Amino acid sequence: MAWQPPKSPHNLVQEPYFGDTWKILVCCLLLNLTTNRQVRAVLPELFQKYPDAASMSCANPADLEEIIKSLGMSKKRTSTLIRFSSEYLAGKWKTAKDLHGCGKYADDAYRIFVVGDWQQVEPRDHALNLYHDWLKEVYHS
After folding, report:
1. Which residues 6+ apart lie within 8 Å of 45 measured at CB?
2. Distance (Å, rounded) from C-alpha 49 to C-alpha 51?
3. pLDDT in tens, 98-127
4. 10 Å Cβ neighbour count for 121?
5. What span, in angstroms and rounded, lies between the C-alpha atoms of 136 and 131?
6. pLDDT for 3-44, tens place per residue?
7. Three-state DSSP state, 54
8. Which CATH number fits domain 15-139: 1.10.580.10, 1.10.340.30, 3.50.50.60, 3.20.80.10?
């Protein structure tokens, strides 16, 4: 049976998107150098216009930049999101860290929320640590 991560009392940005690996990773990319409040503000419009990797991989950069400009570094983020989505679609990756723009944080989130390999992960991010510690309590490991 596939891993179904439980919703936590911590309400991480990724939690509404459990079951959609691409959206979880997009959240991770957007959370770099910004706050969860800022990211939450752009996600509804972003995912309405770009509901999947295919639509974002061929996004008009100016349109995507407009949606995420409040996060800062919109040109860099736009370039990263488009390339990441293309690589995601190509399927030539095994873990999130194989994808453009995804570092330890995205890979940890992928392993915790998608793979269910959370017991082997040692997050360094505050929010991921909250969720990770909560999982330890829930599953008494």
Report:
1. 67
2. 6
3. 999 999 999 999 999 999 999 999 999 999
4. 17
5. 9
6. 999 999 999 999 999 999 999 999 999 999 999 999 999 999
7. helix
8. 1.10.340.30
Query: How far apart are alpha carbons 120 and 13 in whole angstroms?
Result: 22
The predicted pLDDT at position 141 comes to 56
What residues are labeled active site?
125
**Interatomic CA distance for residues 138 and 68, integer angstroms:** 35
The Cα 51–Cα 85 span in angstroms is: 11
Amino acid at 120: Q
Is the Cα torsion angle 46, 79, 14, 88 positive or negative in sign? positive
Q: Do 27 and 44 form a contact (C-beta atoms < 8 A)?
A: no
- Both tokens of residue 100? 């453009």
pTM strictly above 0.85? yes
CA distance linking residue 84 with residue 126, whole number of Å: 24
CA distances from 79 to 29, 42, 68 (A): 11, 17, 12
61-68 helix and 74-90 helix, angle to the nearest 10 degrees: 120
